[in-house]
């Protein structure tokens, strides 16, 4: 599949071992990785004005109880507009909730094929971790859009462990596993009034920046996220200094349910305990 000349490579169980060396090589050489996920739904819906702690409690519950359907990685840099994108289709073993079924079918996700031909998530975790290419490293930044769910599934996939119990520990653990993380929805707030008006979704952002069409599939949406990030940095170069250099070693994680929260933590080499503080 392709969008504006950028190929999205589909990964299923049958070609996983063939594609993994290419994915690992791209991860090894790329300073920026955009990630997006599709998953089997929400068991808990968070009230709009819930506290950040309640948001995380619901995120953690949903991520632990539900399953990935797709994960998309786009590897890129800021020197060129070349992107390399993979969409990994995962075998989902639990029932997908009806609202998610409707959206995913509308988006072209083949749920029956995912179940029968998708990648085993534990095997995927073993291969990503075993490659060493997804280890935390200096000079690499992960890019999301409104990405607390994307980051939660990714951290769980790469750590092979349950999510931490508290919001503070999640921020620190994300830093431990991934290193630098930036959220394009947060960054867009510094790009002018048009990016702050109303509820800015990825589709609206892609329209404002003219970077492509949203497909609601993980590979495509990671590609749109990468292209939006590139476009914003080129149009607003001050963001690179303020966001990347000013927050070296920090994690920025967007909230969920149509809120744009930004949380920052100093990363540590070890897991935090519940008493550790996390200031925004």
TrEMBL record:
Pfam families: CAF1. Residues 256-271 have a biased composition (Low complexity). It is found in: Cytoplasm; Nucleus. One of its GO terms (molecular function) is poly(A)-specific ribonuclease activity. Keywords: Cytoplasm, Exonuclease, Hydrolase, Metal-binding, Nuclease, Nucleus, RNA-binding, Transcription, Transcription regulation. Its EC number is 3.1.13.4. GO terms for cellular component: CCR4-NOT complex; cytoplasm; nucleus. It comes from the Eukaryota. SUPFAM superfamilies: Ribonuclease H-like. Residues 250-280 are annotated as: Disordered. Its cofactor is a divalent metal cation. It catalyses: Exonucleolytic cleavage of poly(A) to 5'-AMP. PANTHER family: CCR4-NOT TRANSCRIPTION COMPLEX SUBUNIT (PTHR10797). Component of the CCR4-NOT complex, at least composed of CRR4 and CAF1 proteins. Ubiquitous transcription factor required for a diverse set of processes. It is a component of the CCR4 complex involved in the control of gene expression. Belongs to the CAF1 family. This is poly(A)-specific ribonuclease.
């Amino acid at each position: 599949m392709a969008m504006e000349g950028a190929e999205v490579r589909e990964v299923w169980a049958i070609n996983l071992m063939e594609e993994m060396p290419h994915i690992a090589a791209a991860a090894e050489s790329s300073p920026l990785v955009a990630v997006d996920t599709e998953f089997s739904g929400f068991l808990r819906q968070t009230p709009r004005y819930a506290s950040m702690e309640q948001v995380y409690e619901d995120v953690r519950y949903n991520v632990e109880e539900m399953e990935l359907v797709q994960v998309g990685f786009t590897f890129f840099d800021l020197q060129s507009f070349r992107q390399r994108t993979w969409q990994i289709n995962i075998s989902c073993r639990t029932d997908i909730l009806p609202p998610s079924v409707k959206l995913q079918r509308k988006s072209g996700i083949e749920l029956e094929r995912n179940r029968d031909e998708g990648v085993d998530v534990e095997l995927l975790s073993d291969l990503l971790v075993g490659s060493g290419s997804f280890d935390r490293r200096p000079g690499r930044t992960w890019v999301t859009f409104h990405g607390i769910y994307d980051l939660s599934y990714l951290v769980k996939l790469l750590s092979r462990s349950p999510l931490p119990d508290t919001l503070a520990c999640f921020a620190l653990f994300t830093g431990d596993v991934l290193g630098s993380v930036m959220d394009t929805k947060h960054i867009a707030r510094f790009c002018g009034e048009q990016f702050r008006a109303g509820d800015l979704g990825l589709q609206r952002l892609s329209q404002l920046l003219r970077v492509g069409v949203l497909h609601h599939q993980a590979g495509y949406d990671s590609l749109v996220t990468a292209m939006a990030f590139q476009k914003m940095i080129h149009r607003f170069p001050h963001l690179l200094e303020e966001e990347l250099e000013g927050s070296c070693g920090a994690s920025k994680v967007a909230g969920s349910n149509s809120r744009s929260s930004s949380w920052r933590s100093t990363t540590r080499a070890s897991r935090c305990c519940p008493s550790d503080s996390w200031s925004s």
